[in-house]
Amino acid sequence: MGVGQDGMPGSAGLHLAAGVPLLHPGEQVFAAMLEGWRAQQLARNLAFSTIGRRQAVVRAFAGHADALPWQWAPQMLDEWLGDMRGVKGLARSTVRACASSVSAFCRYATDPAYGWADQCQARFGTHPVQVVHDWNTAVHVQQDEAGPRKRAFTLDELQALFDHADEQAVRVRGGGRKGWLPAFRDAAALKVAYGFGLRRTEAAMLDTADFGPNPHAPEFGEYGVCRVRFGKAMKGSPPKHRSVLAVWEWLPGVLGQWIAEARPLMGSAGESAALWPSERGPRIGSGTLHKRLCEYRDALGLDEGLDFHSLRRSYVTHLIEGGWDPLFVQQQAGHEHASTTAIYTCVSSDFRTRTLRRALDATAAAAMRPGKSR
Known about the structure:
- The protein has 15 helices and three strands.
- It is mostly helical and 374 residues long.
- Helix 2 runs antiparallel to helix 3 and helix 3 (48-65) crosses helix 5 (92-110).
C-alpha cells in the first residue's frame, strides 16, 4: 500500500504507521491528517495563528456535516455555508475564508504525494474528494469588501472621540478611582494609532524604542519617525517593516507626556519595553484598543461603522484632503499599490466640491486671460 513519500512534511507515512490497527480509526486518522496538514503549512512558512484558524474551520465543518473527510460531499459544504449566511448572518468575507480553508485541506488530503487517499481507501473503502468548487463558493472579485457602513471619521467626529477619551481619564482620576492610567493609556494609544495610520496589531506591538528623530524635521524631536515592526504580512512571510514619518505637530506632545510622565506609573512598565503596558502583563492586546474605541463611539452615539480601522482610513483620507502627495500617503500607509490607498480614501463631499470649484475657477481664469483666442 502506497503511503506517499515518507520524508515529505505532512505525508501519511510520517503520521500513520502502515498496517497498524487503530482503536478508533476514524478519529485517529482525521487527527493525523490535521497534524500532517499542519506540518505541510509550517513547511510553507505560514503563521501559527493562520494554521490554527484553518484547522479550527475544518473541525467545525466536520462537526456540522457529522462526517469525516473521506465521507464529505459538496452538498454538505453547501448546507454549512448556507447556514453561515442565512442563519448566522456572517459576513461574505468570513464565509469565503471558511470555504477557502476547507478547499486547502481537501487539496492536501487528495494530493497523491501525501498518501492519504491510499490510507483512507485501505482502511475505510473510500477516499477524500475536493468538495469546494466554483459553483458552490463565492468569487473574490473586489479588492475591498468592507461593509458599506465602514468609513473614516470626519474631523469633528475624531475630535469628539479624542476629547471624550481625555475626559474619561480626567473623570476617573478626579473621582479618586482606580483605572485612570489605563484610560489615559488608551486615549494616547488611539491618538498615536491615528497619528501614524496604524492597524490594531501595529499599534499594540509598539515599543518605546520604536521612535526616533527625523533629521529633516527636527521640530518633531525624538518622535519624528515611528518604526512599525509588525505590519501586515504577505502569505508565508514575516511581518512587514516600514517607517512612518510624523506629520501632525501635536503627536510629540502626546507621546512625550505618556512616555515621560504617565507610563512610568504603571506597575508593569519597568519590566516591559512595550509602549502600552497592561495592568496585568507586559503588553496590552490589540482587542483592548478596539474595545475601548467602540465603547467611546457608542457613548458618543456615533455610527457603528466606525471602528479601530477607521482611524487608519481617517489618516489616509485627511492627508489626501490636506493636499499631501498621494505617493507619500501610499508609502506612509505601507500599501504595495496606489489602488489600495485609493480604497482607504473616503474624501468628504466638501473636499470634492472645493476641488471641483478650484478646477472650474482655473479653467475660467485661463479662458479670460488677455490675448486668449476665442
